[in-house]
C-alpha cells in the first residue's frame, strides 16, 4: 500500500512558493526616474473608445501604437511591486495633434467613415519640481464604411477572364467593412492567380483598386470640413449606412513582356551543391533523367528519387504554386539545409521561356544528440516518453538513409517520474523510427494535394518499474501515414485565413505489455476490484486516426486536436485472443486551446474530453467469463498533477465523487478512468526581468474529473458515484484555483504552481464540496516545466 507522505524539504518549498505568490500580488506603484526637472513630462496616456465597436481592446492597442513617440512611456517593473517610469519624455501639445493625425489615418484604413477624436490633458504637481502630464483621448470611430459592389476591369481579356473565374474567392465581400488591408489582400490574391497561369513577370504595381470617387473624398484626411458636409448632403441616403464601390483595374502597359505567358525551358539540378563553387560539366558528372539535367560530384543521392520530387517540368506552363511546392518539398525532406531555385528568362523560341537551376545544398548526414529533458503524461500511464518527470536521452539521427532522404532515428532513454513520494517510477526504453518521405501502400494513393506526405515505421521496447506496485516490459510496433493538408476557408470571419490540418493514420499498431505484480498491488486488488482487470498482461492490436489543426488571426490563436483508437475489432473475433490478453475498446479524445495575446499579458483557455468504450471479455482462470469494464491502465485517463487539475497530486482525483479510493488503506493509490472532462483557464501576465530571466505569473482555474466503472469490494455492487451520469455532473466536477510563478529562460520555462481545492467532489455530501477545509497552507504545490497547456 502506498501512502501520501510529505517530507520537510517539500514543505519548505511550499512555504517559499506561497510567499512569492503573496509578494507578486502586492499592488504596485509607479515612480518616475531621470525626468527633466522643472518641465512637465508624460506620465500616462489613456485612450477611451466610445460606441459599439467590435474588438474594442484590440483597436485600443492599435491606437496606442499610433501615438507619437513623445507620448509613449517606458515602464520597468521590479518583481511586480515597484514600477519605474524611466526617462519620461517632455510634454508638448504639438505631439497631441500629431497623434490625432496618426490615429485618424489608422481608423480610415480600417473603414471608419467619419471618426471624432477629442483630447484633454491635465498636469499634476507632485513635490516641488515634478509635473506629471496625464493625456486622455476619447475616440468615436463613427460609422464603418462597408463594401457595396466589387468589380474587375482589366485591359487584357485573358486577365479579365481569370479574375472573373476566381471571383467567388475574392477577399472583398459585399456588406463587409472596407479596409485598406482587404484591398491589398485582394490584389495579392489576383496576382497569385495570374502567376499560377503563366504570368511570371506581372507585379503588384501593374494592378490597382479604384474606389468610388465621391465616397473616397470623405476618407481623405486633408479634406476641408465644409466640403465634407457638402458631400454628405449629396449622399444623405447613404448617411446611416455608408457604402463604397471598388473596381480592380490594370495599369497602362509599359513592358509588353509582363503580359506574356512564360513556359518552363530547361531544368538543371545540382543535388549536392557547394557554396561558393560553380559547377563545370567538364569536371563533374552529368546525366539526364525524366527531362531533367543533373550535374553532381558524388553518389550521395539517388537521382530518380530527386526527379520524382520536382514539380516544375520542362515544356509546361509556369505555375507559381509548383515553383514554391518544389522548394518546400525539398526543404521538408530534411536531407538538404538550403534549397535555391533560380529562374532565368529566355526569348529565343516562339514563346518566352524560364530556365530553372535547382541547387540543393546537403545537410550533415548524421547527428548525435545527448540531452536532459522533461516530459509529461497526457493520457496514457505507461507509454514511452509520456511520463511526467525527468530523463536522459540519447538520439542518433540519419537524414539520408538509403540515399533517398529517408530519416531514421534511434533513441535511448532513462527517466524517472516524480510524484508524492519523490521518485515513484523508473523507466528505460529503446526506440527506432524510420521516416519514409512518401506513401508506401499496396494501393496507389494520390498525394499531389498533400504536404509532407510520409510513411512511419516505429519499433519500441520499454521497461517500467512502478515502485512497490509492479514491473512491466512492453513492446510496440506500428506502421502508419502522416500528411499535412491546407485549405482556404471561405467563412466570413475567416476570409483569407488558412487552416493547416495534420493528419495521422496508423492502420496497424501492436502493443504488448507483460506485468509482474508485486505484493502491494496484489493486496490492493482485494480492495479495488477494477485493479484485477486493469493491471494484467495487455495485448493491443489497434488502428489510430488523429487530426490536429490551428488558425491564427490577429492576436488570437486557436488549436484543435482529435484522436480515435480502436483495438480488437477484427482480431477480437478470434476467441483465444479475446479471452486472453487482447483488449477490445474504442477510445476517443479531443482538445481545443484558445489564446488571446496582448503586449504584456494573455488569456489561455483549454477544453479536453475523452471517452473509452470497453467491450472485451476475460477468462478468470476458473472457467468463468466476465465482461471487462475499464481500459488497460496504460491507456486510461487520469487527472491531477502540474499539467491537469493542479489542486490535486498526480492521479489522485476521482473517479467521480466516489470515496472508494479515499479510505485510510487506499488513499495513496493511483486512480484512472474510462472518461475525462477538463476545462482550464489562465490569465498570464509579466512581472519583471531579473538578470535576463523573465519572471511572469498567472492566475488559473481548473475544472474537471475522471469517471470509471467501480464495484464495492464487499457487496460487489456497482458504485454509482464513480460512473458518469449527467444528473450528477455538477456534484462530480472538481474545481481548483491558484496562482503561479514562472521563470522564462527562453529555451525552457520553470513553473511553480500553488492551488487550492475550491470544490472537492469527495465532500459532495456537504455543501456540494465547496470550500471544504480551505486554509492558507492547505494548498497543493506543483513543479512544472513549460506551460501547462
UniProtKB/TrEMBL annotation:
Localization (cell): Membrane
Major location category of this protein: membrane
One of the record's GO cellular component terms: outer membrane
Sequence ranges assigned to domain Bacterial surface antigen (D15) in this UniProt record: 579-789
Keyword NAD appears in the UniProt entry: no
Residues annotated as signal peptide: 1-24
Keywords, alphabetical: Membrane, Signal
Domain of life: Bacteria
Protein name, entry field: Bacterial surface antigen (D15) domain-containing protein
Species whose genome carries this gene: Niastella caeni
Amino acid at each position: 500500500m502506498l501512502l501520501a507522505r510529505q517530507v520537510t524539504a517539500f514543505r519548505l518549498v511550499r512555504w517559499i512558493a506561497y510567499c512569492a505568490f503573496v509578494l507578486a500580488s502586492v499592488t504596485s506603484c509607479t515612480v518616475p526616474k531621470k525626468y527633466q526637472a522643472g518641465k512637465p513630462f508624460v506620465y500616462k496616456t489613456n485612450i477611451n473608445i466610445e460606441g459599439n465597436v467590435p474588438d474594442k481592446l484590440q483597436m485600443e492597442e492599435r491606437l496606442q501604437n499610433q501615438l507619437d513617440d513623445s507620448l509613449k512611456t517606458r515602464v520597468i517593473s521590479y518583481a511586480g511591486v515597484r514600477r519605474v517610469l524611466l526617462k519620461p519624455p517632455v510634454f508638448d501639445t504639438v505631439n497631441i495633434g500629431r497623434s490625432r493625425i496618426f490615429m485618424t489615418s489608422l481608423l480610415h484604413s480600417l473603414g471608419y467613415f467619419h471618426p471624432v477624436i477629442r483630447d484633454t490633458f491635465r498636469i499634476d504637481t507632485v513635490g516641488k519640481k515634478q509635473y506629471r502630464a496625464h493625456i486622455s483621448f476619447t475616440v468615436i470611430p463613427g460609422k464603418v464604411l462597408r463594401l457595396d459592389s466589387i468589380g474587375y476591369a482589366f485591359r487584357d481579356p485573358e486577365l479579365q477572364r481569370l479574375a472573373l473565374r476566381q471571383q467567388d474567392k475574392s477577399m472583398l465581400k459585399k456588406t463587409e467593412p472596407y479596409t485598406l488591408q482587404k484591398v491589398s489582400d485582394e490584389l495579392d490574391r489576383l496576382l497569385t492567380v495570374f502567376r499560377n497561369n503563366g504570368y511570371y513577370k506581372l507585379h503588384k504595381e501593374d494592378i490597382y483598386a479604384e474606389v468610388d470617387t465621391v465616397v473616397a473624398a470623405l476618407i481623405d484626411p486633408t479634406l476641408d470640413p465644409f466640403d465634407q458636409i457638402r458631400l454628405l448632403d449629396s449622399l444623405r441616403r447613404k448617411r446611416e449606412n455608408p457604402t463604397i464601390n471598388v473596381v480592380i483595374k490594370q495599369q497602362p502597359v509599359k513592358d509588353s513582356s509582363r503580359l506574356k505567358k512564360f513556359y518552363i525551358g530547361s531544368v538543371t539540378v545540382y543535388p549536392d551543391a557547394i557554396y561558393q563553387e560553380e559547377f563545370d560539366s567538364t569536371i563533374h558528372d552529368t546525366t539526364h533523367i525524366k527531362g531533367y539535367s543533373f550535374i553532381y560530384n558524388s553518389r550521395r543521392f539517388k537521382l530518380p528519387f530527386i526527379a520524382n520530387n520536382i514539380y516544375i517540368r520542362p515544356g509546361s506552363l509556369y505555375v507559381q504554386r509548383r515553383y514554391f511546392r518544389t522548394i518546400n518539398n525539398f526543404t521538408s525532406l530534411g536531407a538538404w539545409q538550403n534549397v535555391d531555385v533560380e529562374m532565368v528568362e529566355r526569348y529565343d523560341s516562339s514563346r518566352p521561356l524560364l530556365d530553372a537551376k535547382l541547387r540543393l545544398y546537403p545537410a550533415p548526414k548524421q547527428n548525435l544528440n545527448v540531452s536532459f529533458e522533461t516530459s509529461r503524461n497526457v493520457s496514457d500511464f505507461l507509454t514511452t516518453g509520456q511520463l511526467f518527470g525527468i530523463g536522459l536521452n540519447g538520439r542518433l539521427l540519419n537524414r539520408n538513409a538509403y540515399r533517398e532522404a529517408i530519416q531514421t532515428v534511434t533513441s535511448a532513454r532513462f527517466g524517472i517520474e516524480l510524484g508524492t513520494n519523490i521518485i515513484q517510477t523508473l523507466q528505460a526504453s529503446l526506440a527506432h523510427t524510420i521516416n519514409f518521405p512518401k506513401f508506401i501502400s499496396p494501393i496507389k494513393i494520390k498525394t499531389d494535394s498533400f504536404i509532407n506526405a510520409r510513411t512511419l515505421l516505429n519499433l519500441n521496447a520499454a521497461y517500467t518499474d512502478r515502485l512497490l506496485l509492479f514491473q512491466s516490459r512492453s513492446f510496440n510496433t506500428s506502421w502508419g501515414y502522416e500528411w499535412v493538408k491546407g485549405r482556404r476557408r471561405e467563412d466570413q470571419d475567416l476570409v483569407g485565413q488558412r487552416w493547416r490540418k495534420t493528419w495521422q493514420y496508423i492502420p496497424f499498431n501492436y502493443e504488448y505489455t507483460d506485468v509482474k505484480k508485486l505484493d502491494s498491488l496484489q493486496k490492493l486488488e482485494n480492495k479495488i476490484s477494477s485493479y484485477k482487470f486493469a493491471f494484467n498482461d495487455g495485448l493491443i492490436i489497434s488502428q489510430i486516426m488523429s487530426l490536429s489543426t490551428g488558425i491564427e488571426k490577429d492576436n488570437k490563436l486557436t488549436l484543435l486536436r482529435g484522436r480515435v483508437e480502436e483495438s480488437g475489432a477484427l482480431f477480437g473475433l478470434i476467441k483465444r485472443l479475446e479471452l486472453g490478453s487482447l483488449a477490445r475498446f474504442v477510445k476517443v479524445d479531443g482538445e481545443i486551446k484558445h489564446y488571446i495575446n496582448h503586449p504584456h499579458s494573455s488569456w489561455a483557455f483549454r477544453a479536453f474530453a475523452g471517452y473509452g468504450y470497453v467491450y472485451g471479455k476475460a477468462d478468470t482462470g476458473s472457467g468463468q467469463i466476465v465482461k471487462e469494464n475499464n481500459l488497460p491502465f496504460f491507456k486510461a485517463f487520469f487527472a491531477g498533477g502540474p499539467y491537469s487539475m493542479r489542486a490535486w497530486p498526480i492521479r489522485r482525483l476521482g473517479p467521480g465523487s466516489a470515496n472508494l479510493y479515499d479510505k485510510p488503506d487506499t488513499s495513496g493509490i493511483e486512480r484512472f478512468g474510462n472518461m475525462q472532462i477538463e476545462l482550464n483557464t489562465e490569465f498570464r501576465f509579466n512581472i519583471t526581468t531579473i538578470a535576463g530571466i523573465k519572471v511572469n505569473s498567472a492566475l488559473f482555474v481548473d475544472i474537471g474529473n475522471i469517471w470509471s466503472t467501480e464495484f464495492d469490494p464487499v457487496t460487489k455492487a456497482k458504485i454509482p458515484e464513480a460512473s458518469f451520469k449527467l444528473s450528477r455532473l455538477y456534484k462530480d466536477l472538481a474545481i481548483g484555483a491558484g496562482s503561479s510563478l514562472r521563470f522564462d529562460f527562453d529555451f525552457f520555462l520553470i513553473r511553480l504552481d500553488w492551488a487550492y481545492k475550491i470544490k472537492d467532489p469527495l465532500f459532495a455530501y456537504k455543501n456540494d464540496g465547496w470550500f471544504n477545509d480551505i486554509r492558507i497552507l492547505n494548498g497543493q504545490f506543483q513543479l512544472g516545466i513549460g506551460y501547462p497547456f
